[in-house]
Amino acid sequence: MKNIYKNSFYNLNKAKKILEKNKIIAVPTETVYGLAGNAYSNKSVKRIYNLKKRPKKNPLIVHYYNLDLLKKDAKYDKNFLKLYKKFSPGPLTYILKKRKNSKISKFANAKLKTIAVRFPKNKAIRSLLKKLSFPLAIPSANISTGVSPTEPLDVVDEFKNKVKFILNGGKSIIGLESTVINLSNKPRILRPGAISNIQIGKILKKKVSNIAGSKLIVSPGMLKRHYSPGIPMKLNSKKADYKAAFIVFGKKYKMKKNMFNLSKNSNLKEAAKNLYKVLRKIKKLKYKKINVVKIPNKNIGIAINDRLKKASK
Ligand code: AMP
Ligand code: MG
Fold first, then answer.
1. Which ligand lies nearest the alpha carbon of 60?
2. Domains of the chain (ranges plus CATH)?
3. 97: Cβ below 6 Å to ligand 1?
4. What is the pLDDT of residues 157-190, one digit of tens each?
5. Out of 167, 183, 244, 296, which residue is the most buried by the measure of CB atoms under 10 Å away?
6. Is the pTM of this model over 0.85?
């Protein structure tokens, strides 16, 4: 594919030049692939929203290399520093209070008083961030409400030649979006991910609750349908309905053509990594319905179930 570029010194400089012109590229992260633009530029950020057809009220996550630039953009406390030391770079997003004189485009955080920030771990995106004098606003590289991409070809699938530069960083090793924790107030998980509330609680030495799934509206854009393959989905199924694709987990299944196993070894991490790949495959095969077996609701299984629930709305 001619718009997929390997991670090289030459290509990183090319990516930098495009971003400096306030244009958009696609980038790898360990969670999913994203669309990246200069977070300080209104023009860039607007372009991201337009490309994704994302509602303007749904704020973006701003991605940094380290604390150098963040210091000028957000206020943070000891809790943040403890978590940063343990989990960053990595799949954890922090909601912080935005500084008044922050350079972040007001469109990136939907004009809120807070901003979402993350320090991704993927090698290619880190090399790129290190070269830039601005952070990157990066939502997932898919049309709004759809399934997130986990490899360069998925991005081509979503945007065809509308995205001219895709930085290849291999397959996303986690495959599900980051955990989001609100630190602008009492620490709470707004979106479950690979890093659990239990792991976070251990570092903060207090109980941190998962607000995700509760009725409280705490995070704009978190209520509606999301992560959806655009096909009716039925969860907690014991078998497949007529002509439906069947997503299973574990080794007890006798596999048939319509069956897709997230992890034969009952490994939840592997299942998380495979989930979007399987949903994309089922869509391509033109199934009209999906049944999914019950997935254990522990560790990253909580995040898998969160996405399945939203995808089935
Ligand atoms: P995505 O770009 O699809 O990974 O989504 C980012 C998530 O972070 C969305 O669910 C947003 O609602 C959430 N988010 C981003 N900024 C904020 C913020 N300032 N306050 C609360 N949630 C946020
Ligand atoms: Mg997304």
1. 1
2. 4-210 (3.90.870.10), 233-311 (3.40.50.11030)
3. no
4. 999 999 999 999 999 999 999 999 999 999 999 9
5. 167
6. yes
